[in-house]
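Possible regression after last week's pipeline update?

I re-ran a chain I had predicted before the update to compare outputs. Posting the input and the new output here so someone can diff against the archived version. Not blocking, just want to make sure nothing changed silently.
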Amino acid sequence: MSKTNFGKPIWHDLTVDDPERLRPFYEAVCNWQTSEHDMGDYADFDVSTQEGDRVAGLCHARDSNAALPPVWLMYVAVPSLKDA
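New output (post-update):
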């Protein structure tokens, strides 16, 4: 990762109970493409722009995310996780 990415959002996840139900909404309204992302016994979804850039995920509220309310999570690039 280049230093120019530090401090910038690099990924977003929407964590909800039923991401399958939301796929058509985001595909239609945002003109996004989605594809399955194998999680073992279920699939989350990768979200891509029309240009093919993967930018987000539609995720099930399971495992470590089970207690989260429906929320978009933003990930930011940092030079050192320990220092951040």
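Follow-up from reviewer: compared with the archived run. Residues 9-63+72-76 form a domain with the 2,3-Dihydroxybiphenyl 1,2-Dioxygenase; domain 1 fold (CATH 3.10.180.10). Marking as no regression found.
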